[in-house]
Design brief:
Bound molecules: benzoyl coenzyme A
Oligomer: single chain
Number of strands: 2
Distance between the termini: 54 Å
Strand content: under 5%
Helix content: 55-70%
Order of helices and strands: HHHHHHHHHHEEHHH
Largest sheet: 2 strands, antiparallel
Mean pLDDT: 93
Structural class: mainly alpha
Low-confidence stretches: 1-19
Strand order of the largest sheet: 1-2
């Protein structure tokens, strides 16, 4: 089955050099001082194994999410309603592929190879965002994915630009700029549909109804049930908790929904003047864990598509390696 628990193997044989130094009080103290001073840890620096593992886990899951996240929208490229919408969608899906590549590169600096990460994804061991295991049923879903899914992603990713691990933080700056374009294009596409026919408006509302609760779950389990949060915050990897980000997302999205003219499907959603935030209803965490554990509506399809793409691309990888070998032989001959 496609369970999605990813443990970085302790005794694995990374193809890149992993820095493995016996724990030394001085090194630990230097690491702690950088973290306490809100500085950056770079790949060449000593770091505790648990910090390295946590980063590999999170960054590789994030990379997989970007790559799998290309699929639900990619399905609509050939069916976009105009040349303009097709060009925008192609650019967006391409951007997501680029995000995956920056993130795989950032994870590689921690001593795990891309092959290891792909293997974890293709064998169903690796997690990726729950949100991409739902189908995009209509063109309105493409707009809603941009508006709400990318909107939630930005909310989660802006604080990661201040993450304590340098390569991840730097990658996130560019990712966030591009995600901001993605969110706006989604909103603009929905705005256009909301000025159209009754059928178009109904299509947007239906898509919002289907995606809203899934987007709230994207931020991860409640803080009280989030095993990685306390340590992630201590290390400056996570800056804002799952629940606080979820609340920020709800507060930011309610006025946007009003501008669009759609209803968010939650009868308990209302402004709480005392808290200065919106209250909202209960998230179905059983459904979330079902999806995370491989039993969502599209888990099998998404994974099968990625595995097929990997297998179909084998000849490209072989040709690139053969070309590199030839170049190397030629360079050696010329140097002799
Ligand atoms: N889906 O202790 P917790 C995108 C897992 S791509 C699946 O709170 P943590 C886009 C979690 O991994 C957006 N699993 O964990 C692309 C952990 O399991 P493990 C992707 C989830 O790490 C294309 C367990 O639940 N964004 O925007 O402290 C088109 C307990 O959770 C989910 C990122 O990856 C989930 N939603 O916090 C459009 C951002 N949530 O690993 C858009 C980077 C939780 O212990 N990641 N789990 O087995 C993060 O910020 C953090 O990893 C999370 C979770 C907030 C997601």
């Amino acid at each position: 089955m496609y369970t999605q628990s990813f443990n970085v193997p302790d005794g694995g044989t990374p193809t890149l050099q992993a820095v493995s130094v016996p724990v030394d009080a001085d090194l630990q103290a230097r690491f702690d001082a950088v973290i306490d001073a809100d500085g950056k840890i770079e790949p060449r620096d000593w770091m505790p194994e648990a910090y390295r593992k946590t980063l590999v886990r999170q960054i590789s899951q994030h990379a997989h999410s970007e790559i799998v996240g290309m699929l639900p929208e990619g399905n609509w490229i050939s069916r976009a309603p105009s040349l303009k919408r097709k060009a925008i969608l192609v650019a967006k899906v391409q951007d997501e592929g680029g995000h995956g590549l920056y993130l795989y590169s950032a994870a590689e600096t921690l001593g795990t190879s891309r092959d290891q990460m792909f293997d974890a994804l293709h064998s169903g061991k690796a997690k990726y965002s729950s949100i991409f295991n739902y189908p995009t049923l209509t063109w309105a879903d493409v707009g809603v994915v941009g508006w709400l899914v990318d909107g939630a992603a930005i909310m989660n990713q802006i604080p990661l630009c201040r993450c304590s691990f340098g390569p991840y933080a730097r990658a996130m700056i560019r990712v966030c700029k591009e995600e901001s374009f993605h969110q706006r294009q989604g909103f603009e596409s929905l705005m256009t549909m909301m000025q159209g026919t009754a059928e178009q408006k109904a299509m947007v509302q239906d898509a919002v109804n289907r995606w809203w609760w899934k987007c709230l779950a994207m931020f991860g389990p409640p803080d009280a049930d989030s095993p990685n949060s306390v340590q992630g915050m201590r290390w400056g990897i996570k800056r804002i908790s799952n629940d606080d980000l979820r609340q920020k997302f709800v507060d930011a999205t309610v006025p946007q929904a009003q501008v669009l003219g759609v209803t968010l499907p939650d009868p308990d959603l209302k402004w709480n003047a005392e808290r200065g935030h919106h209250d909202f209803g209960a998230i179905d965490w059983d459904e979330f864990w079902q999806v995370v554990n491989g039993n969502g509506p599209c888990n099998q399809e998404r994974l099968a598509t990625r595995v097929k793409a990997w297998e179909d691309g084998a000849w490209v990888r072989e040709a690139a390696l053969a070309h590199a070998r030839k170049q190397e032989q030629r360079a050696r001959k010329e140097a002799a």
